[in-house]
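Weekly sync notes, structure subgroup
Attendees: PM, AL, DS (notes)

Item 1: joint prediction request from the bench team. They want all two components modeled as one assembly rather than separately. Inputs as received:
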Amino acid sequence: MKIILISLLTLLGLLACSTPLKTTVPIPTIPQNAVTPIPPKTDLTKPEVPTIQPDEELITRPEVPIIAPDHAHAELPWASHGLAGWYQLQDHGNKTASGQIYDLYGMTAAHANLPLFSRVEITNPHTGQHAIITINDRLTESHLLIKISYFLAQQLGLMTSPSPTVNIRRIDAR
Amino acid sequence: MRLTHSPFFSPFLLLGLLLIAINEATWAQPNTLEQFINNMVTQHHFDPQYLTQLFKQVKIKNNILSVMDRPGEAKPWYQYRTALITPSRINQGLQFWKQQAASLTKATAQYGVPAEIVIAIIGIETSYGDNTGNFKVIESLTTLGFHYPRRAEFFQGELEAFLLITREEGLDPLQPEGSYAGAMGIGQFMPTSYRKYAVDFNKDGKRNIWTSFEDAIGSVANYLHQHGWQREQSVITPTKVRPDAIDQLLSLKFEPNYTLQELAQQGLSYNGNEPPNTLAMIIDLKTELGTAYWVGFKNFYVITRYNRSKNYAMAVYQLAQEIAHLYSLNP
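Output from the run, pasted for the record:
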């Protein structure tokens, strides 16, 4: 096992020297009208990801924009193109608008008005790298379409892009 | 419980193994092979001629000793993560979940451990059973037990357990294979762990952790359960730490021995919803951006019982998250 790990590391090292590493997880294409149900809270297979309901504090927080009712986005798909930003290291550990805590390795993003916990497919149009992520925060920066976790920005190859634009497409609704 | 040594060697692993060695070694001083055989005869009633004949067929592996002597180098977390959490390991984890769904569901129901945690451990240990190691276990343990003085007691204890396993399970001692350090099967159990925690999950009368995925899955879940896994509780959550309190918080013991309330008094600014009396510990990891902090709960500590390294436990957790995310998109 150990020897294999060393050779794996060496191999990765060699690869890193010659070609950029694509870390995006290939995700099978999902039909445009597919609605992926979020597993119920009692699903035993995901207990360490507690589903946190927005608490009362959030509802009264002034900086949280009014959440659009679900029926406003009922017609799928919903798609958009624009500038992406990402969270900074000091955001790690902050509470998001959904009540979940921001994790720099999370597959999460902030958006101005998409419902919390809705899922979107985000694509870097320059490279085709894509991922499916969950909206769990509200955007406060008006010049951005979406603000994603640091890890996602890295995974999508946006860090080195002079103008980090993305396509986003909603793929489900709660 | 895989036994590693560099490149991911950690002080926690070393400390843990030393503690195991102190707790579990049967004999205080490293023995010669002759003394070892005598002890197996007097303590476990093995036939001395059988053991003498057996060890005549055991080769000492110098390549194992050269691997052990290579200096260990602790990788920062972000390099460790890149090496272990690869797209192919995530995708194979999803396939493994679908193929072994029945056993995984049964293990979760019986032991409370989520499927993705069991899958991630097996994925990291052996790439889902592909790399279980092809050293003869008896040769690894004899080499390390009698030619690697620094850890002789530990490996003699494992050799003792291995010989007992072969008698209890009716195995030819020359057949079972494992890692260079004697870790066996799909979940890489050391022999002492096998005797305590391996289970016959498919009820065929054998604890076959080498080729039965069902037994391996049950055994990994039971290992975590016996070490105190808490059903449906958090594993690890990001946190903020008051900058002036970092040194103080990191000097605490590497065990979830402190309540969130006590940690908050010492400078933790945690935003989670767990009750203030929840036991936790501070985990610091080196990311590409700099050091980031998490609150590790009992379940995180339980994963470190499989391999005593915070990088290892975090890799298991994050791989599990990635696999679970993919599974939720392709149930």
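Discussion: Residues 1-74 of chain A have pLDDT under 50 and may be disordered.
Action: AL to compare against the crosslinking data before next sync.
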